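Structure tokens
________________
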Amino acid sequence: MLDRFRKFQYALLRNLKTSHKRYFYDALQSEEKLLAIVGARGVGKTTALLQYLQELPLPASEKLYISADWIDAETLFEIADAFYKENGKLLIIDEIHKYPNFEKELKVIYDLFALRVIVSGSSALSIDHAKADLSRRLLLRKVKGMSFREFLQFKYGLTIEPVRLEDLIKNSVDIVFAITQKIEKPSILPDFKEYIKVGYYPFYFETRDESAYLLKLKETVNVVLEVDLPAVSNIKYTTIRKFKKLIEYICTSYPYKPNIQKLLAQMDMAKTAYAEMYEYLELLQKAKILRLIKSANKKDALLTKPEKIYLNNANLHYCYCDVREIGAVREVFFASMLEDYEIYIPTKGDFVVDGYVFEIGGKNKSKSQIKDIENAFVVRDDIEVGSKNIIPLWLFGFLY
């Protein structure tokens, strides 16, 4: 049974070319018995798993990688049982959400076998649900696309440490000089423009062709909409078409302040289908296509419309619409770099994070909108270095 899987595994390892490691690679070295790595399609989960498998100092017979879509007549339990009986130590199961009711078999595998198991999934929906079923057995790590820091590491082979938000705010000028000295380029801004357009997903470095990258990105999103979402929810093909229309509609907005009635009309839905619309928006957010951000005044309300709706990352703008208004793209970049933080829309300013208010704009953005606010900062695009309360936008790409 295992011979077929090992042949696939060896073929993948032979073709593994990159030596660059994503920021979450070290998390794979956790000694947790059951670890789940969850993130959007295309962020490099499979590559990281294969790199870890290749470098792990275990005999080849004691570590096994499989993808859930390779499983045919066997069950997941039968594969784990056979592997354990051959003295297996580490079992990696990629794309676990493609296996029906995987949580039930994982629970049995966890309880019966002394195996380390690492699973990955492109659908946060199914893994989140599984976490509840697996109780305290599962450690879940959610991963993001490449930061600007990682993009520069991949591009130039540099080692640059991430920056804490608090340090970035207090010492932005010193941090800028330390980073730019390492890069040794006349300006960091051309690299930032490239990243904003094509740098969020590591598969850009397979060809470094912008047109091919954006085409592949749209194909990747289509797989999420047409395969992943129907696998974990009861949506129909007609709804998938509406999703695509909605993504393009939000892409052309600056940024989109939701009017639910207009959204319902845009998606050809009944005027009273509020609950269904909220469910769809949440679904697209969990699929890492949209980002919903609440008002700071309503952050504790369970059922409330988001104050603004963004695409998940800046690259999606260049994929889905002709970018004429860069303002929305700047805000999307900022929000995507702070995905792990509690971020809200304040009464004044664009975002509030950990008590700090940020106003995002171009190189001439003034402080007028936040001049009377304590702990408020202007975040400017198209500048290399800022000053006390002015921070360059690109620097937020070093938070992870």
